[in-house]
Amino acid sequence: MRAGLKWMFLIIGTTIGAGYASGRELWQFFGHESGLAIVLFVIFFTISCFVIMNVSYQRKSTHYLPVLRDIVGARLTKIYDVMIFLYLFTTTVVMIAGSGATGQAFNFSYWWGIVIIVIALIVLFMKDINGLLSMNQFVLPLLLGGLLYILLLFTFDQDLALFSHWHEQRNWTAAFPFTALNILPLIAVLGAIGNKVTSKQEIWIACIGSGATLGVISYVYNNSLIQIADEILLYEIPLFAILKGYPFEILIFMSILLWFAIFTTAAAGVLGLVTRIQDFLNLPLSLLVILILVTMIPLTTLGFSTLISYIYPVYGILNLYVLTRLLLFPIWNKMERTK
């Protein structure tokens, strides 16, 4: 159970980043008439996580390439290898930019937020991958609990109905690109821990637990965002529109949690990148982290919401093939063996 929860928090930490925790990513894909889309997302996400972790466990992999080869096939491995690398790179840039945007909400310099997260990432990876796993087990229960508490508080304060629009579900297709968007980083991160998973029970706990947790939070969060739809355009971070009527102390608390959500996903992205690069360059992990982060900093000037609005939908569509392979993996795998 403990090991399963460790991987569950790693999966959630990879998924809940600046885009998700801020509400910007959810609003980009879901919004009105999306209850069924979120249910489908839970099903697709749980299946995808199980396939990725199971392949990683069987391969005892230390980076994502062997897992990727099994999922997309030998012909497309090189294309998706480059695509995963670019995805991890660009989304980690989004996380770093998100740290800058969080600082701006309190009238701090955008660059102070950038510097703080870069230094924190370097310090984290001085302890190798164990530093990331330990941090996730401590930070994520607090983050998930705090986020769910605020969303439920907003729901009850505004007397919102959670299931009043179930007859309106025209946006159900959003489940496909949204799930696809979150698949590539999971291949990268879960592919790096295959040699550390010891049983299939861990895999079941991690996959079902992460899918159910993200499903509940996504549904309540999306329902809250629908109520403030007219105000979202005025906020870089939609979560702050929900918090505007609450005491300043709650705003501070949630901003800290939002920053940690950004940090956990940035750390997962960096993990995927450096474990792949180590296959080519035999350099210490901490040195590779520094080199990668230095190249990312100039790109953060594009801005947080701009990066999400352009990058996320594009990757969501491009990853649909990977999602299809994962959902139909038993069939693909059987076909490959019979050739």
What characteristics describe this protein?
17 helices; 339 residues; Hydantoin permease; mainly alpha
What does this structure look like?
The structure is a single chain. This protein starts with a helix and ends with a helix. The protein has helices at 2-15, 18-21, 24-29, 35-59, 65-72, 74-104, 110-124, 128-157, 175-181, 183-190, 200-227, 239-243, 248-277, 285-296, 304-318, 320-327, 329-338. It is globular. It is mostly helical and 339 residues long. It has one domain (2-338): Orthogonal Bundle (Hydantoin permease). It has 17 helices and no strands.
State the gist of this model.
With 339 residues, this protein is an all-alpha fold.
What does the main sheet amount to? none
Q: Which superfamily, in CATH terms, is the homologous superfamily? A: Hydantoin permease
Mean pLDDT: 83
- From the structure provided, what is the oligomeric state, counting identical versus distinct chains? single chain
Intertermini distance: 39 Å
Enumerate how many helices there are, as a single number.
17
Strand content: under 5%
Provide the helix percentage: over 70%
